[in-house]
Amino acid sequence: MGESKRIYIETYGCQMNLADSEIVLGIMKKHGYSLTDDISKADVILVNTCSVREHAEQRVIGRLSSFLRYKKRKPDLVIGVLGCMAERLKKRLIEEENLADIVVGPDEYRKLPQLVNDAFAGHKGIAVKLSKVETYDDITPLRTEGISAWITVMRGCDKFCTFCVVPFTRGRERSRPLDSIVKEVEMLSSQGYREVTLLGQNVNSYRDGNYDFADLLSAVAQVDRNMRIRFTTSHPKDMSNKLIQTIAEHPNICNYIHLPVQSGSDRILELMNRTYDRKHYLELVRKIRETIPGVSLSTDIIAGFPTETEEDHKMTLSLLEEVRFDGAFMFKYSPREGTKAYAMGDDVPDEVKVRRLMEIIELQQKISYEINQGLIGKEVEVLVEGESKRSSEQWMGRTDTNKVVIFPKHESVKPGDYVIVRINKANSATLFGDIVKILHEKNLSKNSLVSSLN
Ligand code: 5AD
Ligand code: SF4
């Protein structure tokens, strides 16, 4: 014995991909494979990939090329490309680029053990069919994170935003049954997990018979009140009053909503097929803030969509000023073959895109900084996640509003504990402070802001 083949896996892109990699490892473990984090010892190298922007794909191509030296040393090493790039580029990765032995799309992971086996025998393989029903509902993911777990509750996307490749790489929307998700959360709770993030490209479209996403969130929140519940991503078109109400009602559903707006210009929103306008979005934000006091909001922005004028760009800047998001993920538009926007051309010159993106980033950083400065002197509930990356003397955790907090270690505090931290310093991305109280169990008030000195 001790003969099990070793897998090394790298994951790029969104949280859905991180969750998918755990599903892949769950499948492979069942077939006798073990996991290694030392690439030079691997018998199988898997790369779970992202196609959302050109840049992400180029990074992976570079990475795959660098694996060829391991292959030289160990000719029967199997290299596999998984995820969105596998779906998009299909056999090109094998035939033209010769970068992979197997290519497996997001709905075909059950075939992976067979494909890897065939590859050991010298047969390259490809499986990229999309499914209308696959949710991997019965697969137990191999989780490697400490106290926080992801659960994919729906897969695919039917929105067809004109810039986005996801509807083509991940296929149609489909949901997992509510009962089985609740059972999984019960199991995670009994295993000591303290945080669960419900994932979907578009969680508001979750549906199981008569149950919608608000019903799911409510059922999951009742499993264990000491467990924080997060979810992503929400679409501004489908954010129902019932869902907002549900977030407000449950103390352990985090006061944090990621709500991508993409642009502040109605003309661009229309061209993007986002199906809402600026007015709808602002009204939604008003309603959310009124119903969930202290809620933190983040968004996604794209700079330089086809035909975007200086006027359109200014509308995006003014929307950022009007909403004052806690944070944002900001991107330069990247044309993706096969999407509707691709046919619109890519007429905003790169230097204009870069300049607009810089203006957006600068403004948003200033806003995030100001919001975080306002937390100095305040006491916040933090779930301790682990050691700070920068220093072994410090813990890192998050507020329920999803802000990272760094604070000195305390001997009776461990990852998974809840503590109250008084904030004494802040920048645009991180809060710093000191523990003032150890809770261990979660505080059951809705607002994470426990008290204030001023
Ligand atoms: N170019 C730039 N950004 C994109 N996104 C999706 N497609 C593209 C693209 N073609 C961004 C959107 C989305 C986030 C996940 O990625 O802002 O919300
Ligand atoms: Fe892409 Fe739009 Fe679907 Fe999000 S909602 S995955 S941006 S098509």
TrEMBL record:
Annotated [4Fe-4S] cluster 1 binding sites: 14, 50, 84
Signal peptide: none
GO terms under cellular component: cytosol
Transmembrane domains' residue ranges: none
Job description of the protein: Catalyzes the methylthiolation of N6-(dimethylallyl)adenosine (i(6)A), leading to the formation of 2-methylthio-N6-(dimethylallyl)adenosine (ms(2)i(6)A) at position 37 in tRNAs that read codons beginning with uridine.
Any GO molecular function: tRNA-2-methylthio-N(6)-dimethylallyladenosine(37) synthase activity
Stated name of the protein: tRNA-2-methylthio-N(6)-dimethylallyladenosine synthase
InterPro entries referenced in this protein's UniProt entry, alphabetically: Elp3/MiaA/NifB-like_rSAM (IPR006638), Methylthiotransferase (IPR005839), Methylthiotransferase_CS (IPR020612), Methylthiotransferase_N (IPR013848), Methylthiotransferase_N_sf (IPR038135), MiaB_methiolase (IPR006463), rSAM (IPR007197), rSAM_horseshoe (IPR023404)
Cofactor or coenzyme needed: [4Fe-4S] cluster
Residues bound to [4Fe-4S] cluster 2: 157, 161, 164
Location of the protein in the cell: Cytoplasm
Main localization category: cytoplasm
Cofactor, free-text remark: Binds 2 [4Fe-4S] clusters. One cluster is coordinated with 3 cysteines and an exchangeable S-adenosyl-L-methionine.
Residue span, MTTase N-terminal domain: 5-121
CDD domains cross-referenced by the UniProt entry: Radical_SAM (cd01335)
Annotated EC: 2.8.4.3
Keywords: 4Fe-4S, Cytoplasm, Iron, Iron-sulfur, Metal-binding, S-adenosyl-L-methionine, Transferase, tRNA processing
Reactions that this protein is recorded to catalyse: N(6)-dimethylallyladenosine(37) in tRNA + (sulfur carrier)-SH + AH2 + 2 S-adenosyl-L-methionine = 2-methylsulfanyl-N(6)-dimethylallyladenosine(37) in tRNA + (sulfur carrier)-H + 5'-deoxyadenosine + L-methionine + A + S-adenosyl-L-homocysteine + 2 H(+)
Domain called Radical SAM core: residue spans: 143-370
Residue ranges occupied by any TRAM domain in the UniProt entry: 373-437
Binding partners and assembly: Monomer.
Organism (species): Candidatus Thermokryptus mobilis
Matching SUPFAM superfamilies: Radical SAM enzymes
